[in-house]
Structure formats: structure tokens, C-alpha cells
Amino acid sequence: MNQTSPNLRNNVFGWLIILCLSLVGCKEDMKDLYQRAVKAYQTEDYQQAADLFEIILQKYPDQNLSLKARFELGNIYFYKLKQPENALKHLQELYAKSEPGTYALESLKLIGYIYDKSLNDCLKGVEAYRLILEQYASAVDAAEYRYNIGECYFKQHDYQQAMREFQALVDAFPDNSRAPMAGFQIANSYALLEQWEEAISRYQELLLLDTLTPQLRAEIMLELAFCYERVELFDLALKLYQELRQMDPAVAMLDTAVIDRKIERAKEALKDSQKAPAAVDWKKRLK
């Protein structure tokens, strides 16, 4: 039976010791770098913190701690160093490398927010929001992301798609605090499409809700009054404007100067609409 020579056994044992020591040294070095990065962050030396986290990624890309380092980099670059593109690079890499869970979810949240609110590219933000709804709907306020999607299409003047998204929110979460605002945006979309009758109907339905905030109620009344003007219901428009003018400014913020101008405009329009047609002198006209 062949036996391993003492020299070979000693060499193997020696290499195992070196490997173990190197792994211990690797973990210690990585841990030290991470602690230094955290300390730099705590002392508000954000660039130094970012540099140290970057070193961790370069030296230990496959270690679990590198995921946390990448997440910290996404936050530092966006919130502290005001570098949204660098933040996106790390967050997108984090999402790609993470198993489903906290890191993947948190990276998607910030990716959507950066595109939507910082880079004004809400359609790319919508991609992240939809992934959140597909993969983590039970772990988030799904109505918030549905509303963000609707708002994106509204800002893009794609009112038909905006209405579909807002209606999906209202149907799925009728009792959510965002449902009235989604309904308001549906009515606004009809108004912007100059579908006045449908807009009026929607605004009137919203005013029947007892869950409206005073501010939202005032804004609905203001838009409804404008729609009344567009269909020449000047008496109804005037009544709403006058009600708005009597509102307590501490309850609903309104520009009273604007309301006053609208009242005068509605009064003039109502007066003109009530004038009898001028009599025609047919004999003179036939000459």
C-alpha cells in the first residue's frame, strides 16, 4: 500500500496553514477597512468613506460584506456626494448580484427614486417601480408605487395611460389615503383632454367623499369651477369661487387674489350670458 511521504505531508500541511492565515488576514483586513469607512462616514468625511468602500469592492468583490459596501456607496454617492450616476452604477450592480431580499428591494427603491426625482427620467423610474410591485408588493406600500407610476405618465402628458394607472390604484386600494388623489388626477386628465362633462362628473363624485383633506377639497372645487366655466355654467362656477373665497386660509392654502379675479370673470360671463339678443331692425336690414 502506497504511503504519502513525510515531506509531502509536511508541504500540504504548511500550505493549509498559510491558506488559513491568509483567509484570516483577508477577513481582518476587510473588517478593518469597513470599520474605517464607517468611521469616516460618521465624521462626515464622505469622500474618504466612499474611497474605502470602493477599495473593499476592488479587493474583496465576492465577499458578503461587499454587498453592504455597495449599498453604502449607493447612499453616499446620492445623498452625500450628490453624484446620482455613480449611485445608480452601484445600486444596479447590487440588485443584479443580490438574492431576493432586503438589498435587492432597497436598491430598487433608490434606483426608482433617483431616476424619477433626481434625474427627471420617470419612465426609467417606472421600470424599477414595476419590479418592486412584481417582486415585493407585500413588503411595501404598493399604493405608493402605483401612484408614482400614474404620476409619471401624467407628467409625460400620456393622460390615457395615467388614468389607467390611477384607476388600478383606486380599484386595488379604495381605502388607501392616496385613492382620493388618484381620483383627482383621473378627473384632471379628463379636463386636460377637454372632456369636460366626464371631468365634471368625476369632480362631483370626489366631493361626496368624507375622507378628503380640506386642501384637496378646495383644489377639487377650484378645478370643477373652471370646468363649469368651460361648459358655460357660469352661475355654478361663481358659486364655487365664492365658497372658496370664504374658506379659512389656515385650513386650505389658496391664492385669494386669483380667486377674486376668477369671481369677477365669472360675474362678467354670467352677466353677458343673461343679456337678451339685440333687436334687429329688419326693415333697415332689407334696404
Structure characterization notes:
- With 287 residues, this protein is mostly helical.
- Helices cover 77% and strands 0% of the residues.
- The protein has 14 helices and no strands.
- It has helices at residues 6-42, 46-59, 65-80, 84-97, 102-118, 122-136, 142-155, 159-172, 179-192, 196-207, 214-230, 234-245, 256-274, 282-286.
- It is elongated and about 90 Å long.
- This is TPR repeat protein.
- Pfam families: TPR_16, TPR_2.
- TPR repeats lie at residues 143-176, 218-251.
Briefly summarize what is shown:
This protein has helices at residues 6-42, 46-59, 65-80, 84-97, 102-118, 122-136, 142-155, 159-172, 179-192, 196-207, 214-230, 234-245, 256-274, 282-286. The protein is mostly helical and 287 residues long.
End-to-end Cα distance, whole Å, is 137 Å
Question: Low-confidence parts, pLDDT < 50 over ≥5 residues?
Answer: 12-25
Q: Rounded to an integer, what's the Rg over CA atoms?
A: 32 Å
**Total strand segments:** 0
Number of H/I helices: 14
Would you tell me the structural class of the helices and strands?
A: mainly alpha
Give the integer mean of the pLDDT values. Answer: 89
Q: What is the string of SSEs from the N terminus onward? A: HHHHHHHHHHHHHH
Classify the beta-strand content into a percent band: under 5%
Helix percent band? over 70%
Shape descriptor: elongated
Report the major sheet: none
Keywords: Repeat, TPR repeat
TPR repeats: 143-176, 218-251
InterPro entries: CellSynth/LPSAsmb/PSIAsmb, TPR-like_helical_dom_sf, TPR_2, TPR_rpt
Protein name: TPR repeat protein
